[in-house]
Amino acid sequence: MTTHLVWLRNDLRISDNHALHAACRSEDARVIALFVATPGQWSSHHMAPKQAEFIWQSLQDVQQSLAQKGIPLHLVQCDDFSASVALLQKFCQEHHVDRLFYNYQYEVNERQRDAAVERTLQDDGVVVQGFDDSLLLPPGSVLTGNREMYKVFTPFSKAFVKRLQEGLPECLPAPGIRSSGAIETTDRPLQCFDYPREESDASLFPVGEKAAIARLREFCQQPVTLYPDRRDLPAVDGTSRLSVYLATGVLSPRQCLHRLLKQHPQGLADTRVFVWLNELIWREFYRHLLVAYPALCRHQPFTGWTRDVKWRDDPQGLQAWQQGKTGYPIVDAAMRQLNTLGWMHNRLRMITASFLVKDLLIDWREGERYFMSQLLDGDLAANNGGWQWAASTGTDAAPYFRIFNPTTQGERFDKSGEFIRHWLPELRDVPEKYIHQPHEWAKKSQQSLDYPSPIVEHKQARLQTLAAFEAARKKTD
Ligand code: FAD
Predict the structure, then answer these.
(1) Would the CB of 388 count as within 6 Å of ligand 1?
(2) Model pTM greater than 0.85?
(3) DSSP state, 359?
(4) Residue 459 CA, ligand 1 centroid: distance in Å
């Protein structure tokens, strides 16, 4: 009997999983699955303890789903990606594996590891097969007329939709139950990996494939039609909150696309519903960019001259930002949301990132790292893309002279201060008129506030940042 090994990574689901589907195609093969934990590597990638806990719980969910199909899941651990090559080799030898199936990851370290695994196992006579799985369309398949990766999002999105109109990527079913001869015993409990773990709010981010599909279904009914009006309002539950499932592969983007189109068959043309689909295309854009420009994985700015921006060394400012103590209510409420939930609303990610880079003039990589260390949905491509957008160092980024005013952003997107009051209870009694500038109210009404004064003056900070960017640009001219 031949043995097929499915190497699970960022694809913690059994439905629409290309590698798993291919491994199960032959009815006679014995199929086993493996997850390799690499705590040292995760730590160097700043993986959030909340994400580690989510992965751990998702693995237990996948183990159960696989067991019902007669496929055992093994969990092994080594320090980092380079050690995982030998570990996989040993595992394959011990389990007499004939074929290995896995879904691609597109980051540089991951690709180097996969190339080494392929070489090593092929030398041992194992047939190795990789699949594009975490995207709607594979990297390199949506190119300009000159066969280059798009550097601007809108034409990329248009070309992307055209490709989808020509044919939708297929959504694969979960595998069937293995025929009796190919069933393995599956009753061992998994031994958890050694990485710090922290629980997240299970009512907002319930674990498991079923929970993810239920949220997707619910969102694709009515909420998606209201998305254009509500997506920028952090006090409203107006976005899908599916990012953690997409980042860990509990859900696939094809499942999102097919569910959306089932509910709204005109989804590719319908401008309201398309607003949400376009966000999924941003996700694709950043992943395609990562493959076209691997230097992004090494945290290099996309726009070369921004390398010369003189960032301020300000550990106290960085700490105030991280802890939500900048004295700007919308920034602080957002950072407390991040620190508590491991998730932050997109509009707030833009505001807080802009504040760190453009008000404090702190290197965007500090913020990128901190977000990663807290986010449940931490994903190198989306996080790097978002930070480089906010810092004006990326491709198709906010121009460097467009600087968010944190007070007016708060007034615009959390007018009544509902979100701010939720996360900053110390401002509960501040009247609506002053919620974005509580110290003005405190001064006028001679109240004392247990809330920090603004750590920078926005107008002055803006001028300082403009000067720093202009100096860097001139250096290159
Ligand atoms: P929805 O609005 O419902 O969007 C649906 C899905 O589309 C999301 O789940 C996500 O997978 C994708 N998506 C939405 N917006 C973007 C975007 N701008 N770029 C890429 N994909 C997008 N997203 C992450 O998944 N991981 C990150 O580490 C991450 N870091 C970010 C850092 C910064 C500075 C910024 C500005 C954005 C970041 N984003 C990141 C993108 C975005 O903020 C989140 O995907 C979104 O807030 C998740 O909430 P949701 O699932 O309700 O999104």
Answers:
(1) no
(2) yes
(3) I
(4) 29
